[in-house]
Design the sequence.
């Protein structure tokens, strides 16, 4: 028995077509399927995401210069 995680995108018809690789041709398989939206496709922040943010209270902390980003015209 193997557990597989396959990420796929549904088509414009709202259907999801899957191809599942198996190692034994011409063999019957029992399949368990759980369908749930991928976290990033829900449009919501993951639980606890904003707990990652904080501040630095050390007044001696200095952010070094970050440089300049090239303009779109400078990118080949």
Sequence:
């Amino acid at each position: 028995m193997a557990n597989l995680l396959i990420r796929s995108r549904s088509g414009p018809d709202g259907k999801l077509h899957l191809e599942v690789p198996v190692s034994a041709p011409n063999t019957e398989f029992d399949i368990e399927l759980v369908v749930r939206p991928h976290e990033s496709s829900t449009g919501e922040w993951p639980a606890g995401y904003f707990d990652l943010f904080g501040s630095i209270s050390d007044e001696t902390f200095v952010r070094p210069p970050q440089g300049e980003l090239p303009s779109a015209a400078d990118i080949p």
DSSP finds no helices and no strands in the chain. The radius of gyration is 24 Å. The chain has a mean pLDDT of 82. The CA atoms of residues 10 and 52 lie 32 Å apart.
